[in-house]
Amino acid sequence: MKKKLCFFNLDLDVGGVERQLVSMSRRLNRNKYDVSLVLCENKGEFLEYVFPQIKTEGLGFKYSVRAEPLIALRLFRFLLNHRPDIFISFHSKLHHISVLVCALLSIRVFCCFEGYVYKGKLNFLRDLYRNIYFFCVSLWLYIRPFQKFKGYFYKGRFSFLNNLYRVYKRMYSGLRSAERIIPCSEGVRSSLVKVFKTIDNRKICVIENAVDIQEISSFAEEEISQGQLFSGDTAIVIAVGRLVAVKGFDILIKAVPFIKNNCKIVIVGDGPQRSYLEGLAQRLKVGDQVLFLGNKKNPFKYLKKARLFILSSYSEGLPLAILEAQVLGVPCICTDYKGGVQEVITHNVTGYVVEPGNAISLAKAIDLLLEDTKLLELFKQKGLENIRRNFYLERYLEQFEELFDNESTKLSKRG
């Protein structure tokens, strides 16, 4: 009998997490698993890549903290009808909702972490707010509209009060109640342990991000409509990602005036900082050297034309953009970001590592690699070897399938 898996995410807009989720849903063994997707909003450019046989359900709400109770209620209704064997929360913003709803329905939940985890100074206020309204949600679910299901959830004398307390206690314990916690790198794992000190280490299973080499190579062959921008002798230095502060795109732009070699900076991605970054380029009088392309469903055809790839982030999980660049033979310069750059880049072997937030160091590294063709060739060769040895999609899928099979076996024994 097929195991029922349900993945939960915000949407399927262009992004690294979304690309990873779609690749995984397409490549999991169809003979072993019945896969479905639940999205807060059933939208996004990657929806067209989801196989028709994969059920995709939208909850009808754009994610926000205020919308969380409504998302929880819609999710409860969906899971009540579909009852997956394992529920996989694929975005860190959704983990507390997933844990609560799955606690109500006794469904096993896995929580995946794709980025470095911070503990904000005012997080306790947000946690207090969530605890209050989720307690109210739990109470409402038991008292009014789902009263007829009371026997379905639990049996026995005083079941209402006993099990309401049980569910609230499980929700309050947060990630401790997840069956599995899956960080995408050892660096993310370390940050999780520091922030959530009571997590059982036995529940943590690191599964490193991976890429589909064949698919990326195929997409990279697509023609570029702005082909004239990538012609001539000007070196293309490319960066890909969401335009937010933690990605450090402002440092890349500030580095441009210090670059001595003739090059053009191409930034693929969009986000709330775009207007600020475009203004910064104009103020530094480098607007003609910095090109903003916006979101691209297929960034690989642009990556393939580049001489260098830049990742200027302050923190990351295990960045797919670096892996994708290495697949296409594009040498990488990246910052020593929080999250463990050493897991993906070995300095002066598979890439070049610079200090985060230092525009001058970044400019010097760009000049060095644009002038040193031997080093460029070394990075191309070693980078691709690194992907084929450590970050190929088949290995990623095997690790997840092993987790799914082990947990499903436990479930059948307990059931």
Can you give keywords for this protein?
415 residues, alpha/beta, Rossmann fold, 6-stranded parallel beta sheet, globular
How many extended strands?
Answer: 12
Query: Looking at the structure, what is the overall shape?
Result: globular
CATH class of the largest domain: Alpha Beta
What is the N-to-C order of secondary-structure elements (H for helix, E for strand)?
EHEEHEHEHHHEHHEHEHEHEHEEHHH
Distance between the termini: 15 Å
Count of DSSP H/I helices:
15
DSSP strand content? 5-15%
CATH 2nd-level architecture of the largest domain = 3-Layer(aba) Sandwich
Descriptive notes:
By secondary structure, the chain is an alpha/beta fold. The chain folds into 2 domains: 230 residues, Glycogen Phosphorylase B (Rossmann fold); 178 residues, 3-Layer(aba) Sandwich (Rossmann fold). Helix content is 42%, strand content 14%. The chain is built from 15 helices and 12 strands. The strands form 2 sheets. Strands 3-2-1-4-5-6 form a 6-stranded parallel β-sheet, with helices on both faces. Strands 9-8-7-10-11-12 form a 6-stranded parallel β-sheet, with helices on both faces. Helix 4 runs antiparallel to helix 6. It is globular and about 60 Å long. The two termini are 15 Å apart. 41% of the residues are buried. The C terminus is likely disordered.
